[in-house]
Amino acid sequence: MMKIFAVLVLLAAGLSYSQVPVTAVRVDGSPEIDGYLNDELWSQALPVQDDFIQHRPDCGEAMTEMTEVRLLYNDNALFIAFTMHDSQPEEFTRMLAPRDSDFSSEWIGIWLDTYNDDNNAYYFFINVDNVQQDGRLCEVGGWDDNWDGIWTSVTTTTDSGWTAEIAIPFSVLRYSANDDQIWGINFKRTITRTNESAFLFRMADNGSVRIEDFGDLHGLQSLPSPQQIELRPYAAGRIQYLPDADEQWDPWANSGIDGRIGISSEVLLDLTVNPDFGQIEADPDEANLSHWESFLPEKRPFFLEGADLFSMPFSLFYSRRIGSVASNGDIIPVLGGAKLTGSFGGFRAGFLNAYTTSVKEEGTVLESPTNYAAGRIVREFGDGTYIGFSGTSTDIPEHNGSEYSYGRSGAVDVQLSFLENHRISSAIAGTWNSDDSLWTDNFAYNAFYAYVDDRFDIDGGFSFREDNFNANMIGYTSSTGDLNTWVSGGLYHPFSGNDVLQHTWGNIYTWYDYVPGGPVTNRGINFNTGIVFRNRYHIDIDLGFDGSRTDRYEGPDGTRYDGGSDFGFSCSSDSREKLYGYLWGGIHSYCEGSRNNAGTSITFKPTPNVLLDAELDWSQTADARKYNWDLEEWDLRDTDWRSLMLSGNWMFSNYFSLRLTSQISRFSTDWQSGENSCSHRHWTNALVSWEFRPGSMFFLMVGENADPDEFTGDFGEPEFTVFTKLTWFLPV
Questions:
Q1: Which residues does 210 contact at the CB level (< 8 Å), separation at least 6?
Q2: pLDDT on residue 285
Q3: Which of 313, 317, 495, 550 has the greatest CB tally within 10 Å of its CB?
Q4: Residue 273 is assigned to a structural domain of this protein
Q5: How confident is the model at residue 282 (pLDDT cuts 50, 70, 90)?
Q6: Cβ atoms of residues 378 and 348 within 8 Å
Q7: Which of 98, 75, 90, 87 is CA-nearest to residue 29?
Q8: What is the DSSP letter of 390?
Q9: How confident is the model at residue 45 (pLDDT cuts 50, 70, 90)?
């Protein structure tokens, strides 16, 4: 009766449901999470039944189908029940896919700003087939879809739509220790049949999620201070066939443990002993024509958790440095590590330490034992305003006659948001390495201004890394000594109510890079525009011009290149369809020659649980003036890169899948002087994944890999690998 009275009072006051704070009701028991909302406990919840507000296809309009949300909680978890009404449930787009896959189907999601600080939020999404997706959104660090919590969800379809139930344990969330809590909250739903995406609390017209515009979640009181201990012991084994080795069959076994201690509701301690950082998923081959190494994405769980906290200015921390690949191809073992993350008296902080052991070959030390440490502290003031402090330390002790060496770095970065749409950001960093003869010219600076709203944005700034700035012992540093400047602007225009067009955009970007007192190293202008149609097809076009520039790293003394023009395009169909295609290509100037590229990706979904994908990539350079280091003279070079990647994914259930992946690639280099080379490579693996209980995984991988022959460049003798790993999640 009191709940009904409260609703009537609010309606009488002229308030819409979207203005009414969402309320969670405490209950003594736990509703049964089975996808059916017939548990009596749900009758105690006050339903949120307001219209969700579209951002697509008709910005600002109410969603055409009603959505109901209910929230309960007890001492252990937050429970959410969704009822998605739909007049045509037979037209649902169905998709059974691995966890954290992009949804091309009906889905519903919740965001939780647990500190109500307008800066950080968790998100939990599920689609109609109960595929889960979760992660974190932070003003500092952006989207982090690598965060994984252990939570429960079940969905079911009905004659009038579909329903979903979610249970989120408080132990997977971080929040303040206050007795009475108000969290930020928002919900999003999509309907593929009508191409609708909508929020309960309206976001930007372009769909950007603005944490500061969330509504309030009331009713949370006396939440627990979870101090749960989680252990994840693992055992792994591998056998490899190495055709060129003296011992062709190479067996290997390993075990270790990852642990997590919830020190409080705000602080987590992660520990690992002898972690298994072997790559289950291979890094795809790519054509790299730059002077710098490829920047590889992180895939290892210990480093992925809380990765947003270790996002440092100037890439001071690059986690793939830790336990990377030795010169003989072996993975450098990580003996152990510890990571502390959380909030401390208004500050968000993360501290990490890891130790790697040596790698030897025939008694020769290829990699010495190394200790890596990184830390970052951020003080957030709301609405995107913050100050951050970062530091790293790398220490390589004396080992087998080698001298002690070290690397240090530190940075301060600030961002000020004002007048709603304006931002000013700046950072300063320095590096100090033992091999530097003088600690001079070892700093980096940047600053920029940005204005961003729903339809228009503009930004500009500069970045400068002095000649001796070098964070590569634990970070990623490429070119130094250049002062990089840029200005860009963009427009976004939705076509609400249009039967054909969804939205269009246009961006212009111009840059001018130079060495102070020296040559221009890069300059140009680029214009990009595109259209998304109401059926979700799209096309975009890039036009650009590069001015003359100096490449200081090409040849013994560098060289000057004339400028040229660039053209590129891409187009795609609707990813929700059974057959989805993406096509791209371009014609570009390159080192006074040309660079052309084209590619296509085709995805076929014969059934909701099977996905087949083929990606063809081709890139060619012609008549590029480059320095031939073998002949020590300038020459003209042609290159040709071709790659075909095939993959298939079969989901036998939400928790059991088989994935097949294969890539075949070819890269050739032809010099005008007659020196030519060509290398072929292919790899294939089949991976079985089984989550036999929440958080516990079994993997079985069978793979083949053929690197180029050392002399001919043709496919070498294939190596075969069988790898298995068992991880067991044990909450204590």
A1: 203, 204
A2: 67
A3: 317
A4: no
A5: low
A6: yes
A7: 75
A8: E
A9: very high
Q: Cα dihedral angle (535, 537, 543, 546), rounded to 10 degrees?
A: 130
Same domain, 43 and 103: yes
- Structural domain including 422 reads 292-478
Average pLDDT rounded to a whole number, residues 288-314: 79
Place of tokens 């500050």: 347
Would you give the DSSP letter of residue 728?
A: -
- Chain mean pLDDT for the chain: 89
Same domain, 437 and 560: no
pLDDT digits (tens, 9 = 90+) for 424-438: 999 999 999 997 766
At 303, which helix (H) or strand (E)? helix 301-304
CA distance readout (Å), 408 to 376, 434, 435, 436, 484 = 14, 9, 11, 11, 24
pLDDT value, residue 9:
36
Tokens of 53: 């507000």
Report yes or no: 466 and 481 within 8 Å, Cβ to Cβ: yes
Q: Specify the number of domains making up the chain.
A: 4
Instruction: Dump the DSSP string for 117-172.
Output: SSSEEEEEEEETT--EEEEEEETTTEEETT-----EEEEEEETTEEEEEEEEEGGG
Residues 215 and 232 in one domain: no
Three-state DSSP at 687 gives strand
> Are 231 and 217 found together in one domain?
no
Q: CA 25 to CA 13: how far, in whole Å?
A: 23
27 touches 81 (CB < 8 A):
no
CB atoms within 10 A of CB 296: 14
| Selected residue with higher pLDDT from 713 and 362 | 713
Question: What CATH number is associated with residue 213?
Answer: 2.60.40.1190
Which of 62-71, 238-247, 486-495 has the weakest average pLDDT?
238-247
CB-side neighbour CA atoms (13 Å) of 707: 7
CA–CA distance, 38 with 154 (Å, rounded to integer): 14
Inside any domain, residue 282? no
What's this model's pTM, rounded to 2 decimal places?
A: 0.85
